[in-house]
Design brief:
The protein has 158 residues and is α+β, with helices and mostly antiparallel strands. 35% of the residues lie in helices and 23% in strands. It contains 3 helices and 6 strands; from the N terminus they run H-E-E-E-E-E-E-H-H.
Length: 158
């Protein structure tokens, strides 16, 4: 059990630090506009645009033109003649009203981590009851494991 937990912590550390070193960033999805590819409560990881061509079909993260300080994760459905990007959420019926200037793109979608962002989503939506139930459900097994581990080490001869 200890090895499994240590391995899980190690994997989480590597998965958290390596992408950051590469300039990748993560964010919690708060709407279902990209369903079924990405669901509300998932964490998405995006890589810098760099030399990646911004072409039709690519999923990008960009500054929300209607809400400063927020981001949108949508798919490019067309590149307009002036170079602006026409985007659309996979679950939406029509394309976004405002084409996106390429310079507002902050990243290209690389990875989805399902459910990891649910506590953040619940907090944003005011779902405090879910947090109150989930936190102890996660903490109690962890504390029990730590307590049983310390008891085992106390019993071992020095």
């Amino acid at each position: 059990m200890t090895r499994i937990l240590l391995a899980a912590v190690g994997v989480l550390l590597v998965c958290g630090t390596v992408p950051a070193r590469l300039g990748w960033s993560s964010s919690v999805v708060i709407s279902g506009s990209m369903s079924p590819l990405v669901e509300a409560g998932d964490v998405v990881v995006t890589a810098p645009v760099g030399g990646s061509p911004l072409r039709e079909g690519r999923v990008i993260r960009f500054h929300d033109p209607r809400r400063p300080g927020r981001y949108v994760l949508h798919r490019i459905v067309r590149v307009a003649g002036d170079g602006r990007l026409v985007t659309k959420g996979d679950a939406n019926r029509i394309a976004d009203a405002t084409p996106v200037p390429a310079e507002t793109v902050t990243g290209v979608w690389r990875l989805r981590v399902p459910y990891l962002g649910l506590p953040v989503l619940w907090w944003i939506e005011g779902g405090y009851r879910r947090l109150v139930v989930t936190a102890p459900a996660l903490l109690v097994p962890l504390l029990w494991w730590l307590w049983s581990r310390s008891r085992r080490s106390d019993r071992r001869p020095s």
